[in-house]
């Protein structure tokens, strides 16, 4: 096999990744190369004999080295496909997960076409929830909030790149939960994928996640206090007949719905994700 061709570097990288314990070495080698060359992965196959130049080889080597540290592909390529869009991601934000697409489906299914809604994406991270909802329902008014200014900057860039920088009805708010919300803000829907992994599960989490994704977006030291505060305060920002949809850990779903009852929410509903786990909670207000 001739040196430096696409086929050659893929094979070499596959071998190397495999020896370093990466689970899907061939796929990763191909995805990282295709993205770097700006090609669809399938196009690699029709270009197997093409040679990489020095700069390309260096850049690719760097990507493979990164992957060996278990850095997630999405942080190496700075991209993640989610719902109907591709989001920019880096280590300041969580990589959007397929479970969250299920949460979006649930919310969308319960919106009426001819109504106008004001929606909060609480703890927006990359903005994947709020932006995806707005893309489906362009008339929505969406507020994206996050404790992290770095995350909000990313959410703003994703808004521009996905919805266009002329888009109206999207705003950003830096706040730890609702602490810095103007009291007059009221929403028809609050949608959130808050941190929910208990600290004591940290040791069981894969290095791809625990070594690279923002811990603030993942882990909770005191879930009871966190969810109590979240639900107790959320009421002040929901309109009459407003609805709060939340993704959570299967461990907390029942507790969240009990807390909902305590704070005067009604019609609590728990939904299973595609793997049959209780992972989403809906709470109605008023
Ligand atoms: N809303 C973002 C997501 O679903 C970020 C969530 C978070 O940071 N916990 O990916």
Features:
286 residues; alpha/beta; Rossmann fold; seven-stranded mixed beta sheet; 42% helix; elongated; binds glutamine
The structural domain count equals: 2
Bulk shape: elongated
Give the N-terminus to C-terminus distance in angstroms.
70 Å
Bound ligand species? glutamine
Question: What would you say this structure looks like, in words?
Answer:
The chain is 42% helix and 20% strand. By secondary structure, it is of the alpha/beta class. The chain folds into 2 domains: 64 residues; 206 residues, Rossmann fold. The strands form 3 sheets. It has a 7-stranded mixed β-sheet with strand order 5-4-3-6-9-11-10, with helices on both faces. Strands 1-2 form a two-stranded antiparallel ribbon. A two-stranded parallel sheet has the order 7-8. Helix 7 packs parallel to helix 8 and helix 11 packs across helix 12. It starts with 5 loop residues before the first helix and ends with a strand. Bound molecules: glutamine. Glutamine binds next to helix 7.
SSE arrangement:
Blueprint: H1 6-19, H2 25-37, H3 41-46, H4 54-68, H5 73-77, E1 80-82, E2 85-87, H6 98-109, E3 118-122, H7 128-136, E4 141-146, H8 149-163, E5 170-174, E6 187-192, E7 197-198, H9 207-210, H10 215-218, E8 219-220, H11 223-234, E9 238-247, H12 253-262, E10 265-272, E11 278-285
Parallel strand pairs: 3-4, 3-6, 4-5, 6-9, 7-8
Antiparallel strand pairs: 1-2, 9-11, 10-11
Glutamine is lined by residues 94, 96, 100, 123-126, 128-129, 193-195, 217.
